[in-house]
Amino acid sequence: MEDTGRAPPENERRESRLAATLLALLSLTYLAFLAFFVPRLNNFVYSDREFTGWVMPIAARLNAGARLYSDAVLPIPPGSFEVLALVQRVTGKVLLLHELWFAALSHWLMGLMAYAVAARFSTRKVALLVATVTLVLVTQAPKECIYDHTSLLCAWLAVVTGMNAVLGEGTASRRAWLATGVLTGASLAFKQSTATGMVAGWALALAYLWAVETRHGRRDRARAHGRAGAVFALGFGLGLLVVLASIFGAHATVGGFVQAVLVDGPPLKGGVRTLVKNLFLFVFHYDAIRNTIVPTAVVIAIGLGVARRAGGVHVGDEPGRRAAFGAFDVTLLVAAPVVTYGVATAMLAGEVRALDLSFSAVCEGLKNVPAYGFVYAAVFFAAHLRESTAATPEARDRGHALNAVILATMTTSLVYDTSFVEFNPFYFNEPSIPVVLLCLFVATERSGFSWATPLVLSAAMLATFGTKLNRALSDDTPVDGTAWAGLRVNYRGVEVLRAAARARELAGPAGTVLVLPEDEEFVGLIDRPRPPLTGAIVFVDQYPARLLAGDIAALDAHLPDVIVLHPRRERDWRAVFHTWTIGSAAEHMMEHVLKVLPRRYALDSSYPSIFFWDQGEIDVFVRKPGGAP
Amino acid sequence: MSDAGLARERRLGLRLLLLTSVAFVLFCAAFVPRLTNVHFGDVEFTGWSGPLGSRILRGDRPYVDFVLPIPPGSFVALALLEKLVGRPLLLEELGLNAALHLTMAVLAYVMARSISSPKVAVLTAIATLSTVIQLNKECAYDHTAQAVAWAAVAAGMRALASADERRRARLFTLTGALAGLTLAFKQSTAIGAVSGWVLAFGYLAVTDRRARRPGGMRPRLAELGRYLHGVCLGLAATWLLLLVLGSTLRAFFQAAFVDASILKGGAKFLVRNLTSYLFDYPSYSAPLASIAAFVFIGHRVLERHGRLDIADERRRASPYRTTEVVTVAALVLAAFGGGYLLLALDVRPYPARLIPELDRLKMLGPMSLVTLAALFVAELVPFRRDHDDHDAYRADPDAAGRCLNAGILAAFASSLMHNTSAPEFRPFYDNNAIIPLAFLSLFVVLDRASLRWLSAVILAFLLLGIGGNKFFRAMTASVPIGTNGHWAWMRLNDRGFTMAIAAARARQLAGPTGTVLVLPEDVQFTALVDRPRPPITGAIIFVDQYAPRLAADDMARLDEHPPDVIVVHPRRPSGWQRFFRIWSGRSGAERVLHHVLVDMLPRFYERDSTFPTTFLYEAGKLDVYSRRAVPLTKEEAERAADKSDDDDAFDMLPDDALDPAANEGATP
Description:
The structure holds 2 protein chains of 2 kinds. By secondary structure, chain A is mainly alpha-helical. Helix content of chain A is 63%, strand content 5%. In chain A, strands 3-4-6-5 form a 4-stranded mixed beta sheet. In chain B, 61% of the residues lie in helices and 5% in strands.
């Protein structure tokens, strides 16, 4: 594509229509793929990877009249539970499929938002490339719990509004800042780490813009950014009203929410010290890109190509490049989704059972390719700091705008990632994804190497055929009834279904069942009440220490009829627990139950399972008759 | 820079290099005698060339009387040293390795001087030295092969930097001779060393064509001819060496190429490994902060020079500042002098929990691969040059950037091929020729970015990294063993001391003329026992050293001449099997081990003694067995085995894995 300036208005309309058509085609192929993919997305009790469907059972409890943070205490804000409770009320059913579809449609929306972010800064072609690869990346996220997705939708939408805010002027900019603030505040209704990251990120972005203008003596503009900060703060306040509404909607109190989410939450992840240490390690220790020799050389070559072609790496003039689609561009943008999702859909619909494992492993590794965008983000960021390299004042401002958005999204993503102890870029649906991809494709497009964009796009699209699709292909058994109705499961899922059915049968219609360590999806599948514990989820980072004594007493007084233990080996669940804390309240609860178990329960049945890639066993225990010790 | 200024720079550079050499030699006086690493008890293994040199001195013919897939050069070097000293000592091999490390530092200086200033060259040499001495595996076949391969890279780069046609021609011949001679030391390194320069000439020919150099490709073809002439000389020297040793080219080819290829998994594995090294294996650390740091450095270079390539590097003046000289001298004295004092004064080792922290500094070296890749690519994707600049560029077809790229191709090829001994890519773990060029690119870039202080900081961290695991190991080796035996004048840690006692017990049991077999075989321990092995043809019964074609015959020989003593370490088969399976699940060595452990030990031997050991970071046991006067019956042996309370079961293999017929394909 040659840089010959903006297209004339009549062409502009044609280009706009063409881009919309291509985006619609991308959406259609993706949604068709989802129709076959989503029913295969269960992730049974850690037996595949991560965990899934933790919001559904809590939402059902809300609908049953439970009061969050008093009857069911957990450190997750109420928003996602209320959203799913609403869905359950409307449909009249409690299904895992609801949560899976919500997550999948969130991914689709993220693709559209990625387009909106990229199109605001760069060309439509780049925006379509960003949207296409965004869909691949976000679909690969291994955990379908919509407290993540709802909070991240806020964060992604804030990137759209934030990009508009930093690129716009006057009233439009102020409105966008207000919306960004509202979304930042509202995100607290879904996940506190996302909200914390958004507050820090957008505050940093505003501080950066203010500092840049002040440093260069443009005091009026600096003051304008100061005012934008005030508007953002106002929006944040309005967003908190949304949180307040959601708290009341969950029949909770503000005090209960603050205690459970803001006071209990951080210590469960190790406290402020751990948070700071993790952030340090994320920046200085964990690899952000796949550090292999040849890809490194290719990344450098593309960067040098950009610098050589334009005489620098300032990309503030990006929208000024000719926006017309060439025949090759259209072919590429049509072929990428049609071939990728076409093949994947055909395999799912055609009941193909597995991909070659080596091929699948290579595809899984290709997920790392888009992360090379981090390099270009750093390159462009550094270039934009030197205003003398900008061709025009407009280009200069756009450069600073991109820097501000990079700062905001990176900060949000890093803080969001502190939910876990390792930094693995793009493992979750981080809001940095569209911005990093934007930088990646701006670089490949500006490099002048005709092979660069097709190479990166092909590699990124192949990631679709990684582990997650292979898992879905293995699902050969349709499920009827229970919370898993409408799903298809593989042999591991069949064992989980058998275990759940047995637990249900043993408990009878009114008996209680306790699953330990607690997996909410499994609890929902068993569909029997838990013992009257206040802690909503007995799991290491979800169960506050303050509840332990009361819950042990409640448990001793109301022993469940059935206990399901998975995994059987202590060292397996302890290893997972110790990722966050040694000696957590959940661990003490487990130890207490393990002490009670031999005296009061008998092993009824066992089912083979996988627990985090290792052979495990699901044991179903039933209370001994008479209840004698 | 004026001639006088340049001469001063050279003098300063050479003096700093000399100071480094003297400090290093002093350091080695205390460090080298503490480098025992016996039977995988510390890390890796050590001293495998010396004992084979002793066999050559005894008149055994390599690849005929004793078969192994390692070329004979290092054995000959150690045989000569043994002859000179008058007795076989581990210290000879360790001393040779230390000398080769220093040689590598000097070669790094020579390579760097082909491109850049004496100041950058000294930094490169010191950084290189601090890295190469950290390799835990002290076997001279690796060190000799690498040193010769490094010399080939250095000679080639000097040739490219030379304007004198005659000197240039001689240096290209020398480059070829050294690359060819590498085959006398290690075949994988040699294949890389020879093919690397062919690749480099190809690259230079293409760039000549792109720059429309007068004469087209003819001058390069002539240089390639001289190089290939040298290669022939080097290969001829290897052949001559074989003849002198009483071996044959055919036997050598069978052992070093046919057997070796089978032992490492064959051509399919080679291609898979090479692909994985280049496209998949993490080579350096890349957190967000380091990406930002590299971008910052790149921007500074672009700001100051308007481009990233280093075509003008030889003309660029970057003289020493007094503070730089003082800093470098102080760092070298502090590192090597301080290290010597800590060891010589027997200072107690620092807390072991600090080892990982110090070893973390090792990740700094591989990060220089980023600057290496940047300079390589910058030369391939040059910025638009103005007219005068372009003319000057055409006039100097071997400008610094192209010279560096040719060196990188040659060094990278030899490094990749050398690395194929292991399934994972370890560019800075082995002493690869890419190391000095990576450091050179780092210090050139930092100098061009006017970040001299950062060069000093990085050098300081690299030197501090010397204090990691290997130095800690040396600090724990405080007990002098005395002046007798293979380990004379060494100092041992508790693990080494246990091994010395175990070896003494095996020696005592065997008597003055008895035979001892160590399984899996650690050549250093065999030398320490100092008793003959049974008359088997395989020189080392170890997974990647023992050709499957020898197993059937050697097992028959063992049945015919059972050793008087058998030493087994580690006791648990899973311990060595885990290690063996890195290369092969059906190796000849495993068949021999299975035969001895299952068919011979229970009936014909009794356990005499057991010693607590460490095997690859895990607690293990070394068992010494002596031959029974009267063998047990099969039933008695089975009963005795049932009584054993140890977990010494074999990891189950497919039946055909241990079946001799299954390996028929490997028979020549």
